[in-house]
Amino acid sequence: MKLYGVGVGPGDSKDVTVGVVEILNNSPVIFVPVKKPGVESAAYKVVKEYIKGSEIVELVFPMNYNKERLEKQWEENARIIENKLKKNKTGTIITIGDISLYSTAMYIEEILKNKDIDIVLKPGITAYSKIASLLGIPLAKWEEGLAVVPASRDSSFNLENILKNFENVVVMKPSHNPEEIISALKNNNLQDCFKLVVKAGTEEERIVDNLEELKNGIPYLSTMIIKKT
Prior knowledge:
Blueprint: E1 2-7, H1 18-25, E2 29-34, H2 42-47, E3 55-60, H3 67-88, E4 90-95, H4 106-113, E5 118-122, H5 127-135, E6 146-150, H6 159-165, E7 168-172, H7 178-187, E8 194-198, E9 206-208, H8 211-214, E10 222-227
Parallel strand pairs: 1-4, 1-5, 2-3, 2-4, 6-7
Antiparallel strand pairs: 7-10, 8-9, 8-10
Helix pairs in contact: 3-4
């Protein structure tokens, strides 16, 4: 049995790679992550024009941080995938962005490997690569450092320390801790040195570069680039 894990990019169907399209075209069953039943998957919305006749199976990945509940759901999703692959032999799970960077599918990869399922990963364009191109700026040049960090919900996320060591910082999942981000930008006099892109590549895409606007909250599908130079 084989499961392809593919990244579909941040939101624009034109950013889906040729390799991913080929996999989707030849996949009898496609597993689609959703927050809850009845809610459209952002990843599926990106690639649905490339899917022809495949069976679509929704897998619920709830947006909560109860480890016990999450692990139970991951086990259930792995069971669903295994049962479908026993019938179809091969399938594909899609995820927004890149499959190897904070992706939904990684939570169940280890479970599936223990079930004798061969997992093949196909990368997608990352959100930060997309928004750097959109903004027309380099992520890093010459010998500058680049940090890619997730904004955690607890005190372990210390953006000020990161800014001391890197000229360029990408903040993934900034909606998790807007207060820390605002504080770090102010304390380092970087109010004019960031760009936040919301829902890059979609019809709802917008760019935020006003610190005051961040105080109103940061949408979930957002990525921030901070450049000190």
